[in-house]
Amino acid sequence: xxxxxxxxxxxxxxxxxxxxxxxxxxxxxxxxxxxxxxxxxxxxxxxxxxxxxxxxxxxxxxxxxxxxxxxxxxxxxxxxxxxxxxxxxxxxxxxxxxxxxxxxxxxxxxxxxxxxxxxxxxxxxxxxxxxxxxxxxxxxxxxxxxxxxxxxxxxxxxxxxxxxx
Length: 165
Ligand SMILES: *[C@@H]1O[C@H](CO)[C@@H](O)[C@H](O)[C@H]1NC(C)=O
Ligand SMILES: *[C@@H]1O[C@H](CO)[C@@H](O)[C@H](O)[C@H]1NC(C)=O
Fold this sequence. Notes:
The chain is 10% helix and 47% strand. It has one helix at residues 4-19; strands at residues 23-28, 32-33, 41-44, 50-54, 62-68, 74-82, 84-91, 98-102, 109-110, 124-132, 138-146, 153-164. Strands 1, 2, 4, 5, 7, 10 and 12 form a seven-stranded antiparallel beta sheet that branches. It has a five-stranded antiparallel beta sheet with strand order 3-6-11-8-9, with no helix packed on it. It is globular. Residues 43-45, 73, 75, 143, 145 line the site of one 2-acetamido-2-deoxy-beta-D-glucopyranose (NAG).
C-alpha cells in the first residue's frame, strides 16, 4: 500500500524534475521567436539596409543581410526570456567588427575578438558568433551593432537559439 505522503513526495519530485528541464527556442531572422512570434528589431541610420535572402541550407530558409558602408550604424536587437543565448551568422570573406551588448552592458564582446571565428572564402553557414550562458532567468536584450567600420562590410544574421527554463 502506498501512503498518501509517499504520493505527495513522488508528485513533488515529478513536478520539480519536469519544471527544471530546459528547452531551447529559436529566433529566426524572418519568422521571429518560435514561442512568442516576436521578431528581431532591425535599425539603421539608413533606410532599408537589411535585405532578406533565400537560402537552402540555412535556418528557416532565409537570412537577413546588410552591406554596411563606412559611417553607417546598423543595429539588430534580440529580446528573449531565458538563461542563455547563441547567435548564428553566415560569414563571408570579410569580417565586420560587430559588437554584442548584453542587457546594456557597457563592455561589449566584439566578433573580431572571438577566437573561434576565422576568415573564410566560402560563406560559412551556422557560424556561432556569440554566446552567453548563466544569465538570470528573465527578460534579456541583446543589441548587435556594427559601427565605425573603415570599409564596406557585409553582415548576415541567420538565427539565434536561446534557452528557456
Ligand atoms: C540548447 O542549445 C545549445 C547550443 O546549441 C546546446 O549546447 C544545449 O545543449 C541545448 N539545450 C537543450 C536543452 O537542448
Ligand atoms: C544603435 O545602437 C547604438 C549603441 O547603443 C546607439 O548609440 C545608436 O543610437 C543606435 N542606432 C540606431 C539607429 O538605433
